[in-house]
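Hi all, a correction to my earlier message: I attached the wrong file for Phosphatidylinositol 3-kinase VPS34-like (PI3-kinase) (PI3K) (PtdIns-3-kinase). Here's the right sequence:
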Amino acid sequence: MVSRAVASALGGHAGRTAALRQHLAALQERRDRRRAEQEARLEPPVEVDKKVNPEGDEELGMVRVETAQSSSTQIRFDRARSRSQSLDAKDGEDEPVRGKKQVIFAPEVAGEARSTSVGSERPSESGRLDLGRTLSPGFKTERESSSCARCACACFFRKSEAAKVDIISEEWTADPSMQQFGNQDLSLLDTLGTPLPVEPSRPLGKLQPKRCFVANSAVAPVVFAYQEPDSEGAEGETRFYAMKKGDDLRQDAFVLQIFRIMEAAWAKHGLREVSLMPYDALALSAKEGMAAFVPRAKNVATILQEFDGDISQFIKKHCAGSVSAAYDQLCGSTAGYCIATYLLGIGDRHLDNIMITEDGHFFHIDFGFVLGDDPKPGAPSVRVPSEVLEVLRQSGRIDRFHELLREAFVLVRRTARLWTALLSLASSAGGNGVTPLRDHADRAIHTVRQRLHLELDDASAAAEITAEVEQNAVAMLPIIYDKLHQAGLFWH
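and the right structure:
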């Protein structure tokens, strides 16, 4: 290192080049000497035959090498020393030249010799190693017939290019059990389709571009239509999924999860008629997500427009089963959503986010305002369209509706600690995307406790919720808000 630094300071570019070559040659010499000493202790001696040619020059003949490693090591050691001496001599002649010149280093010998019989090399006048006379006759013939323009050293130590073996083809040929599939037209795609993350248990088939659309909503979600295959792989019904951007669907997923727990609590106590059947929603980010559409469902606004305000005509026309069973479904689901939306303070209710399926299931969607938040001043605490109650009256199920309403509310009161504990845990975790639990957790939890009417007995609380539903169903303010909402969507 010191010699290289001194030479670099005195000689400029040429000095740095000479110093670097000397340093590399010294390293190679020490490494080869150490390797030769280790192999000499492990290997037997080498027998050499000599002969003299007519000109009197002594030349090494064919060397019978018992082990190729000992001979190749000595060759590398002699080649590195001779090459270093020739390059140093050449650098001494070109020392005054300061211009750029091409620097050629000795090739690094990485592998062992390919032949078991080699000759000794002797440097030529130009400092290059002349291997032409010492190579085996077979190798010389191959080198002369080749069109390679490289030097003898590069050609000598070049690895032989053997044909690569295709392991997969050999395994396929050798294994008879795999050959039986050779002529079959196999498909790697599942015949039952591929599910989406929002509904991982439901496989989907091909996309139907002609049935995709942009929903008429404030955030204008893009709705994708997929063909759902049946158990045999044939085409089934069409499933719709909305890709929403602008809403935090973590809040929707949280509300839907509470709906599932509430429905399980009712079923455990015998109220299986009170059903919610919440849909699936998945938040992809804080402002993006996917929601699964409930099949064969329409919003109340569309139903009232198409059937002149008569929901019973919609059920009679599209219900595939019994109309009476559809009315029972409408009665129980309406009672369940009245309790669930009232308890959790679901706001911004209008006829476009209240849905009814063809078999009579009543449900709510789009939970952007919860726990008492509502963009409309004076909005009702619970929203049920009067047209739905009119169908229950005409079908003779209004009394059953009131009975289910009271029983469901009493059971929710008896499990009050469960709902407040869930909200407290969510607020402790940062709100889980629920804005009221993140910003005003105490006020949000107090809203739920207040709507449970824990200061009243069961009978008084049941009468309170029944009167609340009946009064809000015939109120004029919700109807005005519905008209304004429809006008806003029209201009939007």
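Sorry for the mix-up. The two ends are 79 Å apart (CA to CA).
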